[in-house]
């Protein structure tokens, strides 16, 4: 039997929210899918494109790398922030250039420009926070939060926050300023490390479309 003509669905995990919409814009711009394939208003979480043998999963942004690492998805779109935080064993194929923002340390205006030895930092990113302060030789107590991180230093929960900054508006509106940018983040195309031969050749075609954009 000639297996070169066989096709399987290639599954791509997208992070629900703005990054998924930017990913769909991107994939439709390079001709991989029709723009209206994913209906973000519906409660559907799986969308299939039979013509191109593609399946899209809408998952939480913190879960994209897990789906890809464990083979629930073959490819995924994840922010560099999530990749570094999860330390998942996946291939990082391409920098897709959209979803640009930065991971920063911030504190109340005029305070804490110089780090003390023992500090408290509130964050959604405990691993990035731990590694960042460890590389400075500073002991940090991490306060893990799940959102509205900016409130933590205003209520003495923490001295600093480590969080994503996009426009900077949330910091400004809450009387905080950036002390230091840790890294710049963009969306990355990631892949499972154990693809079947058939999927491997389909993924190669997707990568070449992405590379030629
Ligand atoms: C993110 C991030 C900041 C904000 C930065 O929060 O955690 O709070 O956006 O954006 P800006 O610089 O444009 O103001 P998100 O909107 O995801 O909400 P959350 O705080 O509930 O996580």
Please describe the structure with a list of short key phrases separated by commas or semicolons:
2 domains; D-Maltodextrin-Binding Protein, domain 2; alpha/beta; 213 residues; 11 strands; binds 1-O-pyrophosphono-5-O-phosphono-alpha-D-ribofuranose; five-stranded mixed beta sheet; elongated
Structural commentary:
The chain is an alpha/beta fold. It has 2 domains: 10-99 and 186-211, Periplasmic binding protein-like II (D-Maltodextrin-Binding Protein, domain 2), CATH 3.40.190; 101-184, D-Maltodextrin-Binding Protein, domain 2. The protein is built from 6 helices and 11 strands. The strands form 2 sheets. The protein has a 6-stranded mixed sheet. Strand 2 (46-49) and strand 3 form a beta hairpin. It is elongated, with a radius of gyration of 20 Å.
Strand portion: 25-35%
Secondary-structure-based class equals alpha/beta
As a percent range, the share of helical residues equals 25-40%
Count of distinct strands:
11
- The radius of gyration computed from the alpha-carbon positions, rounded to a whole number of angstroms, is 20 Å
Main sheet: strand order: 2-3-1-4-11-5
End-to-end CA span: 35 Å
Poorly predicted regions are: none
Shape: elongated
Bound molecules: 1-O-pyrophosphono-5-O-phosphono-alpha-D-ribofuranose
């Amino acid at each position: 039997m000639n297996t070169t003509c066989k096709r399987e669905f290639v599954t791509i995990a997208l992070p629900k929210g703005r990054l998924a919409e930017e990913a769909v814009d991107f994939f439709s711009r390079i001709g991989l899918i029709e723009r209206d394939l994913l209906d973000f208003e519906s409660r559907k979480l799986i969308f299939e494109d039979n013509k191109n043998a593609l399946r899209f999963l809408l998952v939480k942004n913190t879960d994209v790398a897990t789906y890809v690492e464990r083979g629930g998805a073959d490819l995924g779109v994840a922010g560099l922030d999530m990749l570094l935080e999860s330390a998942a064993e996946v291939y990082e194929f391409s920098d897709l250039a959209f979803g640009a923002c930065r991971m920063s340390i911030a504190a109340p205006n005029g305070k804490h420009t110089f780090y003390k030895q023992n500090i408290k930092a509130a964050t959604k990113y405990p691993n990035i926070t731990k590694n960042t302060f460890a590389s400075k030789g500073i002991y940090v107590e991490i306060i893990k939060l799940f959102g509205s991180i900016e409130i933590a230093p205003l209520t003495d929960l923490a001295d600093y926050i480590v969080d994503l900054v996009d426009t900077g508006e949330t910091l400004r509106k809450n009387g905080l300023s950036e002390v230091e940018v840790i890294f710049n983040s963009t969306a990355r195309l990631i892949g499972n490390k154990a693809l079947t031969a058939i999927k491997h050749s389909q993924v190669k075609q997707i990568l070449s479309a992405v590379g030629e954009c």
